[in-house]
Amino acid sequence: MASRLATLSTTSRAAVWAHQKSQRSLNSNLRLVHGLAKRAAGPPVHVRAAYRETTSSSSSSSQPAWAIKMLYDGDCPLCMREVDMLRRRDASQGRIAFVDVAAPDYDPAQHGGISFEAAMERIHAVEADGTILTDVEVFRRLYEEVGLGWVYAVTKQPWALNLANKLYSVWAKYRLPITGRPDLQQVLEQKKMCREPPQSTGGGV
């Protein structure tokens, strides 16, 4: 009996010793792996702080929701067909901001400094970063935003863009008479008269 107890005691001590040795080996391996991982990763990076900084800087930039702002002549019937088509295709996206330069409250300072006269001479657009576009490049960007980029894709080639701009310049030059309106000079004079306050006739009761 005593011999069996001694044997069990010896076996138990051996099992405990083996378990402790295995645990020490496991801990040693874990420390080794952890050390290798730290060296591979390099110095610690404060991810949370960097995230907060990125978030605050992006929110403070107040980037507009639209990607491009189209300046158009609301009194031009042919122009309005184009505007209406783009509005329909952009209705659920909000990628295009539409600005009527013929509106009484049009303010060039709010739209890239583009004057009413300049906007009437040829089409303009302003991208969200402030870049001003003119002529056929405006149509190419607008069509890209509504999923029709293939229509003007060829104008990405310099020769095609140059040719398209020449054709557009002819249209822009004769746009007003073609649509049955007075020439640009008369339109500008009418616009000026509308903006000027009426002159007092003098006299009194």
UniProtKB/TrEMBL annotation:
Transmembrane regions listed in the UniProt entry: none
Record GO terms (molecular function): protein-disulfide reductase activity
InterPro entries: DCC1-like, DCC1_Trx
Protein name in the entry: Thiol-disulfide oxidoreductase DCC
Gene source species: Chlorella vulgaris
